[in-house]
Amino acid sequence: MTLIxxxxxxxxxxxSADLERFRKFDWFISLHHLLGERFDGNKYWDGNxxxxxxxxxxxxxxxxxxxxxxxxxFFVESIFIVSVLVYxxxxxxxxxxxxxxxxxxxxxxxxxxxxxxxLINKEITNDSDDIEIAIIKSVFIESHRQILSAIFWFFIxxxxxxxxxxxxxxxxxxxxxxxxxxxxxxxxxxxxxxxxSTRLFAIGLALAGNLAEAIAALRKSEVFSxxxxxxxxxxxGIASLQYSPEPDVSGREKSYWLNQFKFLIIRTLVIWxxxxxxxxxxxxx
Length: 285
Fold this sequence. Notes:
By secondary structure, this protein is mainly alpha-helical. The chain has helices at 2-15, 26-38, 47-70, 74-88, 91-107, 112-119, 131-157, 159-174, 181-208, 211-219, 229-241, 251-284.
């Protein structure tokens, strides 16, 4: 049922008009601020313990709901699991933003730079990166965060796993620019959660793209460090794409690499969903 739940959630997200207004985690951020004010000055409410306490409350509530539904109705439990997946996994938003940018540069529309800024994550990119490579790097990371890593933890720990990952990712985003022990603990936990899925994503990109170039890039990477998750992923991803930009090309020609990049990500996701399906079916047999 794990694979079926996932496929239903992905289909629901892709065919729905607008689900982003429901994907709000303000309640969790409010809980963070509330507990921070309540235990301000408490020497035990800091760093790892604060993070564990903050995560424990929503995860316990989720586990309790799952426990009740599992003893009440399989149908209701299934709907709830799919709802949590839809809440935590959002491929359509990212793909829609990316498609809008491709269309805007092909048509030479004036809003292309604004759409580009909406895709670029300045914490991941370098000042030396041009707009196209900055977008590719950023979308690699967002594809991992919004789709593959969440799916990975769903397969490993079930719906609790995907919910845990999304809470940690949202908290880390909220604490960006904050220098305290909670921010450090959250960043470390997110890096740990990202470590296996970034490697799997990189392997999938290599299989879906140029394997030889990806292996060459892998040899230059620090494979085992949790601090290099994103640099390893973007390095292998760009090598798998075999990206070679040409200066002074038209918007339609420039969109060639962006389209190839989008298809590379889609092929990679399909590869891992198929692999997951084979593993699940083999366990059943």
